Amino acid sequence: MNHEDPVLLRTEGRIRHITLNRPRALNALNHAMVLRMGEALDAAEQDASVAAVLLTGAGQRGLCAGGDIRAIRHDAMAGGGTALDFWRDEYRLNARIARFPKPYVAVMDGIVMGGGVGISAHGSIRIVTERSGIAMPETGIGFVPDVGGTYLLGRAPGELGTHLSLTGEAVGAADALLCGLADHFVPSRELPGLIAALDACTTPADIAATAERYAVAAPGGELAAHRDWIDSCYGADTVEEIVERLADRGVPAAKQAAATILSKSPTSLKVTLEAVRRARRLDSLEAVLDQEYRVSSTAFTRPDLVEGVRAQIIDKDRNPRWSPAGLAEVTEADVARFFAPLGGGELGLGPGAPATR
């Protein structure tokens, strides 16, 4: 095993370990890592001696901060298409994880954002800690939640998913559990013991029981106390009305949410709201991933992605110049273009599509 590899693989007992190994980049995903993970899952499924897969991230700061958006921005500026190839394989990996026939245990310790959610929150056993910060922050970089994020957020209780998708707000362990993004809270100090105990397991039942044995009640979250105004305000039909309801609610947290939303890309906000609501009506993760690929492919060609990454990641001036600049300038026709069929360029995971593996 080469410790310079961005994905480290090893087997302990009957557990196949997959460790993301770019700690200086917060384990951000690139195309090679996605392909390597897919190969590792293929091998683990076919190997009868492997009972489960365990995903962790190297370093102390997080499992995975998402895709390598610097590279995506560079590709968009150059008029390339490697980002589309990356997303195609990444979304297929997300679907693969969700349907993996053996336990897939994801340790969502530290920062878990964007693509990091895609490789963890679709797993069968998802562990969070007091250090977990889970988010889909795409509207802040001129993009739209993907990697099955609209599927997950669209199925969160009430309008919690709408709130998280529009604001990009990060949630801790208790709120991740509430929203259905995780299964168990385990204090970070207990992770070495949990992992050692998992390595001693021999059956899927043992693995599930071990995760439950280490789990304890998560420290109190924030979202449950805000359900009233979240469900009421985010139940509106448009982003404009959502913002108006939040601003008028008379609750400081609601007013802050309105201000946060207004700092995001107007186009991304409107497309995100439509994507989450359409995702609720679709009957499978695969169908949602097909939809997300259409949306991502269009977002890749729009100026807000390049500008958003510039403002947040490259120059870090936190002053993006969105185009269009206001919600009123984004029409229904503008939004509809993001959902238009791609012809021969479809991802093709949903019903009637060719097998993905």
TrEMBL record:
Q: Which GO terms describe its cellular component?
A: cytosol
Q: Report the superkingdom from the record.
A: Bacteria
* Enoyl-CoA hydratase/isomerase domain sequence ranges: 15-339
Biological process according to GO = L-valine catabolic process
Keyword terms: Hydrolase
The answer, when asked if Transport is one of the entry's keywords, is no
Give GO MF terms, alphabetically: 3-hydroxyisobutyryl-CoA hydrolase activity
**Reaction(s) the record says it catalyses:** 3-hydroxy-2-methylpropanoyl-CoA + H2O = 3-hydroxy-2-methylpropanoate + CoA + H(+)
Q: What is its EC number?
A: 3.1.2.4
Report the protein name in the record: 3-hydroxyisobutyryl-CoA hydrolase
